[in-house]
Specification:
Blueprint: H1 2-17, H2 41-74, H3 90-119, E1 126-133, E2 136-141, E3 152-156, E4 178-181, E5 186-192, E6 197-201, E7 206-210, E8 216-220, E9 226-232, E10 245-250, H4 252-264
Parallel strand pairs: 1-5, 4-10
Antiparallel strand pairs: 1-2, 2-3, 5-8, 6-7, 6-9, 9-10
Helix pairs in contact: 2-3
Bound molecules: dinuclear copper ion (CUA).
Dinuclear copper ion binds next to loops.
Membrane topology: Multi-pass membrane protein
Protein name: Cytochrome c oxidase subunit 2
Keywords: Copper, Electron transport, Membrane, Metal-binding, Mitochondrion, Mitochondrion inner membrane, Respiratory chain, Signal, Translocase, Transmembrane, Transmembrane helix, Transport
Length: about 260
């Protein structure tokens, strides 16, 4: 047992030193290069499509660079004193027209399937209405009603820097989080009260424009519990950078308890 304990201590030290962790990345980190970890099938799809496209990008870049270098090398004036008189090449023209078209065709298949998957609203169990304001978000759970005919509705403001507690994220923490159950199809309806905003949470693969006088809808299906951070993603005025989003994904019983609490207060 002591050996085991020592090994785990070594691992912990190693992970801390290398700045590695087992925790999922659901908020931006310093010098982050890649995506945040996915929490929905849609975000998994986005990341996979990115990887698929990366394959073609690398292939095409290497080929084009190789062609360019070869051309510059072999057709340089001192190396190639008598220029070629060739002006046409039907065969090569067919090749360099058909090949890119074929690559685009291959890319289109996963791209379209993802696009339609994002558009699909699968019989939602919960509907949440999200309104963008200058400069905060307000949330409305209209599925539930109490004896006083009240629905669950609240505003969500950023926690200012001077009020942050240890461990809280600067410019990302809010006073009231959106609580959502995991493994449930949730429909979100997004709109704005004043100007354009955009409700965006990277880990959920959502970026939905909030447009005054118009309802946009998407769906969320969160696979694991956690805190997902996002920000307004449409320039909406002076405090655009100060209206973050925090989605708290909890188990269904905890969600029911939360709703019950909200309705009875
Ligand atoms: Cu709201 Cu930018």
């Amino acid at each position: 047992m002591i050996i085991n304990k020592n090994i785990s201590v070594i691992y912990l030290t190693l992970f801390t030193c290398l700045n590695l962790s087992f925790a999922n990345c659901d908020a931006p980190e310093n010098w982050q290069m890649g995506f945040q970890d996915p929490a929905t099938p849609i975000m998994e799809g986005v990341i996979n499509l990115h990887h698929d496209l990366m394959f073609f990008i690398v292939l095409v870049s290497i080929f084009v660079t190789w062609m360019l270098v070869r051309t510059l090398w072999y057709f340089e004036q001192t190396q190639n004193i008598i220029p070629s008189t060739l002006t046409h090449g039907t065969f090569i023209e067919i090749i360099w027209t058909v090949t890119p078209a074929f690559i685009l065709l291959i890319i289109a298949i996963p791209s379209f399937s993802l696009l339609y998957a994002m558009d699909e609203i699968i019989s939602p169990a919960i509907t949440i209405k999200i309104l963008g304001h200058q400069w905060y978000w307000s949330y409305e759970y209209s599925d539930y009603i109490n004896d006083k005919d009240d629905i669950v509705t609240f505003d969500s403001y950023m926690v200012p820097e001077e009020d942050l507690e240890t461990g809280q994220l600067r410019l990302l923490e809010v006073d009231n989080r959106v609580v959502v159950p995991i493994k449930t199809h949730v429909r979100v309806i997004v709109s704005a009260a004043d100007v354009l905003h955009s409700w965006a949470v990277p880990s959920l693969g959502i970026k939905c424009d909030a447009i005054p006088g118009r309802l946009n809808q998407t769906s969320i299906f969160i696979k694991r519990e956690g805190l997902y951070y996002g920000q307004c993603s449409e320039i909406c005025g002076i405090n655009h950078g100060f209206m973050p989003i925090v989605v708290e994904a909890v188990s269904l019983p905890n969600y029911v308890a939360w709703i019950y609490n909200k309705l009875s207060t």
